[in-house]
Amino acid sequence: MKITHIALGGCITAPDVPYGLTEDTGGHIAYILGAAQAQAERRDISAVELVTRAFDVPELGEVYGRAHQRVGPKFTIRRLRTANTGYLSKEALAAELPALEAAFLESLRDARQRPDLIHAHFADAALLARAARAAFGIPFVYTPHSLGIDKSGCLGAGQGDPVLAARIEQERAALDEADAVIVSSRDEGERQVAAYGVGLERRVHRVSPGVTLAPRPDHAAARAFLAPHLDDPEKPLILAIARPVSRKNLAALARAYAASPALQDKANLVILAGQHRAREEEGARVLRDLTRALSAPGLAGRAALPPAHDSAEVKALYAFAARTRGVFVNPALHEPFGLTVLEAAANGLPVVATRNGGPADIVATLGHGRCVDPACETGIGEAILGLLTDAAEWDRAARAGRGNIWRYDWTAWAREAQKIYREASARPAPAVPAAPCLLVSDIDGTLTGCTEGLRALMGWQRAARPRFAVATGRSIVEARRVLREWNVPPPEIFIASVGTEIYRRCGSGAFTLDTRYAARLDEDWDRAATLRAMRAFGLPFQAEVEQRRWKLSGVGTGAEAERLARHLEAVGLAARVVASHDRLIDVIPAQGGKGAAVAHVTERLGLAPSDVIVAGDSGNDLDMLERAGRAIVVGNALPELLDRLTSDNVYYAERPHAGGVLEGLGHFGLAAGQAQPSLEAAQ
Fold first, then answer.
1. To which H or E segment does residue 664 belong?
2. Contact in structure between 106 and 127 (CB atoms under 8 Å)
3. Model confidence over 352-370: pLDDT tens digits?
């Protein structure tokens, strides 16, 4: 397979990223380079090229005018040349897109080998990818990196801004028309994408990107870099690295430091805000704000805003900050992912990071610091000081960062992306008559948990060819991720978010939201009033990313769920309360739930209830197990489910997980030789 990545903005070269050379030269370039280099190492990839824009600006570097730049044996950067040879910011690129599209299509017409798939980065690149698909039938995958709708939210912009409005519409079209969408964080894949329209998550896949581990620390280089700026470079170092744009909120960090004598006594502050050469209006304004904040009395020799840096100095500073037992800070108003938070972890440097966006995912996964409200400068300062003064917490965070960074690996990203590429590239297979039955299974703890059992169940599925659906509390984005990681082929139907969203595979192979079911849920669902009632009840809420259009999720016991149900009934709201794992509570429309969703799917497929077999293991599976014609409870089922089941149509398997599903299928006469568990499996 030949892969072409397209990224038009910023200064793109390899192997090092010239961070901050322009305001559009940021972490997305490291993402693309890391992805492309990992793909080029795969045996099933013949070539990888990165298509970007050529420009001739001597002060930025002659490399950006080269038509071709060889990065590795199978990886090349190719630059499109148009009549405009100046550097263009992301906003200014819009006028140049028709010429870039024409140049790209011309290059494809002349190519000896066209790509098998195009991966577009940002919506402007997606325009070129869509044109290539129309002209040559090349499928394309889209990665947004940073969505305009969140920029409008965190900065209060967008209303009446025609440039931003056009960008948002361009992004909506890319999300809607791509053959697949790959994002990095749950916030990106669920909350942000959902803001563009109901059901757009149907094409979204979440794949965690990697991080390039730091070379051997060069503490001498770091000291030499800091010496002109700091009186005592050996003090703990508070480090921040970001482009000088308002969304990065660097001035809030500077003000938090200036307002805290305790922080000033304990640590130095160094902010790397790009290269301070001639800037566009926003960058110049941010640098003025930073300079003003760091010019406060008493900060000379303690706080620094270096005007220039290179990639080697950045790597040295990460390591040196860890050596001084310092802290890395990402205070962005919203951060789509947070590559710097990963880079800090790789160096054993604890972090204080924004709670808005990808860093919350990263810190929850790695456990290497604290997340804060970026709008609260006092809170930022207190979190930094807390890490600096609590030696035990600092040690735990440093160990967690280094010890868990393997979870973010470009080789793993390339492996998972390749599965998505193949699915996006596959032509719809000829229809094969399916067996007249539907298997609906929960995912976590039912399908997953035992590789051997799952392999056997998937073997049965390939041979018996039943219709197959999953019913899960997860969103479709997270359900896809888990199934992909367990090598489960995509089902025909996703019943997601505790039975409040149904996605059906259509003729093209893509999934589409079942709008008929959605309309039914809307009939008596007052989300705003339900949300107010839950707040009045005092239920702690789960993270924002867990809240959906037809699902509001909190934390509490089964007993608290029962009290909440009575409270909602008392205030006249039609809603169902679903408890699971004795800690999770979901409030959904009265007509929703896994049972209702399975019944709806059964009817749409023209099947009888007796043609449906469902399998589950926890409280949120209760209604579908009770209502199904035939039901399987796997051997590892939770007491919360076993204690409440009253239906006599249920088979209680002895085997856990997928092996239990297969055992149940044998009991119902659908899987020969599987009715009784083997002695080995039952032990």
1. helix 657-667
2. no
3. 999 998 899 999 999 999 9
Which amino acid is residue 320, in one-letter code?
F
Average pLDDT of the chain is: 92
**How confident is the model over 402-450, as pLDDT tens digits?**
999 999 999 999 999 999 999 999 876 665 566 689 999 999 999 999 9
CA–CA gap between residue 533 and residue 203 (Å, rounded):
33
Specify whether the backbone of 232 is left (phi greater than 0), alpha (psi in -120 to 50) or beta: beta
> Which three-class secondary structure string do you get for 395-441?
HHHHHHHHHHHHHCCHHHHHHHHHHHHHHHHCCCCCCCCCEEEEEEE
Domains detected in the chain? 2-206 (3.40.50.2000), 219-403 (3.40.50.2000), 428-520+592-682 (3.40.50.1000), 524-589 (3.90.1070.10)
Q: Which of 340, 363, 238 is nearest to 17 (CA)?
A: 340
How many helices and strands (H and E) does the chain possess?
A: 27, 25
Say if residues 40 and 74 touch (Cβ distance below 8 Å). yes
d(CA 41, CA 156): 43
CA distance linking residue 131 with residue 628, whole number of Å: 47
Q: With 80 as the cut, is the pLDDT of residue 508 above it?
A: no
Angle at 137 between CA 133 and CA 140, to 5 degrees: 45
Calpha distance 282→246 (Å, rounded): 7
3-state helix, strand, coil in the chain (%, to 5): 45, 20, 35
What local confidence, expressed as pLDDT, does residue 198 receive?
75
What is the pTM (predicted TM-score) of this model?
Answer: 0.88
Contact indicator for 86, 55 with CB cutoff of 8 Å: yes
Strand (E) or helix (H) holding 652: strand 650-652
